[in-house]
Design a protein that fits this description.
eight-stranded antiparallel beta barrel; about 20% helix
């Protein structure tokens, strides 16, 4: 599993309805993308959930590097770069995954058949720089043990950037994120999850 995110920060007076329309019209294009575990179309809006900025910041969990490569070098990402400029793309090694009790069998964008259930509406993301001398394996184990176990949890993951020695924790929520959930808060405007069921649950090494 590979985690990936890019953040496009927009002007304070930017009409975020433009981003909402973009997601509404283009979000389903990745609903069946090969190698994609999930893509959460994350948005921050100035003045909401404590955000000081307007931002489009989609987050991905890739099952295969081939799927990720095909996306980054393909027409969809090329169009985004033409519209907003080419963003820096952050990448982390997947370390673990938890499927929450609110992750139904037919989440939005899932290829699995079954009755439709609402997808996640909120997300929290926390990054932590590991101190010099800290054992990365111990830090990852601790983060995995601290993944939330909450009735509104859809999916949570831990990943590691070995270039910056940065630990990432992300959680998707079927309702507003709990007040005690740490990290930056986003709204989820669409979820594509074609191969989420094929991502292994638990520790990934």
């Amino acid at each position: 599993m590979h985690a990936m995110q890019y953040e496009i920060t927009l002007p304070a007076d930017y009409d975020m309805r433009t981003v909402h329309r973009r997601i509404a019209t283009k979000g389903s294009l990745l609903d069946s993308w090969p190698g994609l575990g999930l893509k959460a179309y994350l948005v921050r809006e100035r003045g909401r959930d404590g955000s000081l900025v307007n931002q489009y910041a989609p987050f991905y969990l890739w099952r295969t590097p081939e799927g990720m490569n095909d996306f980054l070098l393909g027409p969809g990402f090329r169009t985004l770069c033409a519209d907003f400029g080419r963003p820096a793309v952050r990448h982390w090694i997947g370390a673990g995954l938890r499927r929450g009790p609110a992750d139904g069998p037919a989440a939005a964008g899932s290829a699995e058949a079954g009755p439709a259930v609402p997808g996640p509406v909120a997300a929290t993301r926390l990054t932590e720089r590991l101190p010099e001398g800290a054992d990365p394996a111990e830090a990852v184990e601790r983060a995995l043990a601290e993944l939330p176990d909450h009735p509104d949890l859809h999916t949570a993951a831990v990943a590691l950037d070995p270039a910056r020695w940065e630990l990432l924790r992300i959680a998707l929520w079927r309702a507003d994120a709990p007040a005690e959930a740490p990290g930056t808060r986003y709204r989820v405007h669409h979820l594509s999850s074609p191969e989420l069921d094929r991502l292994p649950v638990g520790r990934h090494w």
